[in-house]
Design goal:
The chain is of the alpha+beta class. The chain has two domains: 113 residues, Umud Fragment, subunit A, CATH 2.10.109.10; 34 residues. It has two helices and eight strands. Strands 1, 2, 3, 4, 5, 6, 7 and 8 form an eight-stranded antiparallel β-sheet that branches. The radius of gyration is 17 Å and the shape is globular.
């Protein structure tokens, strides 16, 4: 969820920080994680992933096409991870744990800290998943209605 040009410069520092056992924090850029994170001003705090990622983890990874993204894990596949931004339709693939730079432990949105263990965040993750299912159902039905009207 960040401009790759600016991320290329900070990735080595983020890696050094995480490898030293510290947390790393950076400002997010882009629109892929709306409504959770907005372009500029919002921040993410990462820790080094100590084990394999889980579905719904928000991870900072290098994708198979060489880009850096902060996206949600939506599936484990072929030893890697399928990633997708909360505001995206397309997915990326992270080849494996060696391309995972860090995993989010909290977000700072409009100056307010949102811990991934908080009830509000857990509700957001569940709600987002259910809302996405309803949204996809809506578009399937709308598509059928449009096709029927064309006949």
């Amino acid at each position: 969820m960040s401009s790759n040009n600016s991320l290329e410069k900070v990735v080595p520092e983020i890696r050094r920080c995480l490898d030293a056992g510290k947390l790393a924090e950076f400002e997010t850029h882009g629109f892929s994680m709306i409504p959770l994170l907005h372009d500029g001003g919002d921040r993410v705090v990462l820790k080094k992933a100590e084990s394999a990622l889980n579905v719904n983890d928000v991870a900072f990874c290098k994708t198979d096409d060489g880009r850096y993204v902060l996206h949600r894990v939506i599936e484990k596949k072929n030893g890697g991870y399928v990633l997708k931004g909360d505001n995206c339709y397309t997915c990326e693939f992270c080849k494996g744990d060696e391309d995972v730079i860090g995993v989010a432990v909290c977000f700072i949105r409009r100056g307010k800290r949102i811990d991934i263990t908080s009830p509000c965040y857990k509700f957001y993750v569940r709600f987002r998943k259910q809302a996405l299912k309803l949204w996809l159902l809506f578009w399937r039905v709308a598509d059928r209605v449009v096709k029927l009207r064309r006949k």
